[in-house]
């Protein structure tokens, strides 16, 4: 997939395929039907879940609303390839997937290249709270507010030479996470001092910002949380554990490490361990806001 966002001339995006599927099933009048998404992912970025709000036609007026929703999920998934609709919910007219999303959680997986993880953990703490992230994003035209709030930012250990960042925020700027991760890699190698990182967060011009944005392949949209909707959908974590094992094996090959990465627990357990307050990966309160 070449990202999630709808592009009129690009058939290989998540939203374009979904809109074409809904139109083929006569659930929307056209592929240009207005909708709102909880989060946008770029090309190369993965997503465990996402959500959008859209008006669908009622094709089975004699059925209950719950039955209609189940039928729609089944019909849509018959036509979709390489993606799946988990659930459809009826929501109030005021509900908006983007505006009613109170926080998004991302994971960024990476290989340990002799990083100083303790310094990186200290760097994670600096990002907590509300800051001007002008130095940590790709600025877009007409961007007026570049302040965002980070609720959680921590480094967690996976297995031997593999780790991941867990980042939870109310919302994110374009490429913000990959810029923050790139800065932490520089902190981990000693090329960027923690004091300089703090200065960058105060929107001071950065003369030594010579690091490139982190690669998109390690980034995963893990979860979203709504203020007015219980969105505890049943995600099959085995699929994502399998994909992550493939990613790790590829990374091992690239850096010429001479051992296979083996999952020490059942496939579905890894992603279930990532939820807030669980998993035994460390103290959850060190790198999050109270």
Question: Can you put this structure into words, describing what you see?
Answer:
Helix 3 runs antiparallel to helix 4 and helix 3 (117-127) runs parallel beside helix 5. Strand 6 (147-159) and strand 7 form a beta hairpin. The strands form two sheets. This protein has a six-stranded mixed β-sheet. Helices cover 28% and strands 18% of the residues. It contains seven helices and eight strands, in the order αβββαβαβββααβαα. The model is unreliable at 254-263 and 277-284 (pLDDT under 50). With 290 residues, it is an alpha+beta fold.
Task: Characterize this entry briefly.
Belongs to the tRNA pseudouridine synthase TruA family. The protein has 290 residues and is α+β, with helices and mostly antiparallel strands. The protein has helices spanning 14-24, 65-79, 117-127, 176-189, 194-201, 237-254, 269-272, and strands spanning 35-37, 46-47, 52-54, 101-111, 129-132, 147-159, 162-169, 219-226.
Could you name the key traits of this structure?
290 residues; alpha+beta; Alpha-Beta Plaits; 2 domains; six-stranded mixed beta sheet; two-stranded antiparallel sheet; 18% strand; elongated
